[in-house]
User: Fold Succinate dehydrogenase assembly factor 2, mitochondrial from Capitella teleta.
Amino acid sequence: MEEGGLGAPDSSGDGLRRPVLRTVPRCFLTSEPPTPDFENPPIPQYKPRTLNEPFEQKQARLVYQSRKRGMLENGLLLSTFASKFLKKLTPDQLDLYDNLINKPTNDWEIYHWVTGKTETPVEYDTEVMNMLKEHAKNEEKEERFVQPDLYAKY
Assistant:
């Protein structure tokens, strides 16, 4: 095909350009479009960060992820927890926290586990979960109406 042309070059010798016919994938030939499954949408599996992620970078990422949850309840609960405890966690505890806030596909599950409304699955029933449950009890009666300052010294 010539650059800027509208069809295939003449191969019959009559000087006429003919339209180029291309095949169409079968999925476009069906009369009905595929119906999305709104009841069970596909949710991508959580892929842990590389093992090479520096400790300080991981802490910073988890502070951010603790704040940006998509639901106010967990945003307040996890951001205040991160502000109070994240710098004190060991690398192994930080891994547990990372899995806890990133592996479950529904934030309400995390909220219900932490508040004791539902049983915590064995996979997430760790020392970090116990710390988070104690934090959620708020026995010190701290006011937690807003998230802590992002740039506070954790």
Q: What stands out?
A: Residues 55-137 form a domain with the DNA polymerase; domain 1 fold (CATH 1.10.150.250). The helical segments are 55-67, 72-85, 91-102, 107-115, 127-137. The chain is about 40% helix and 0% strand.
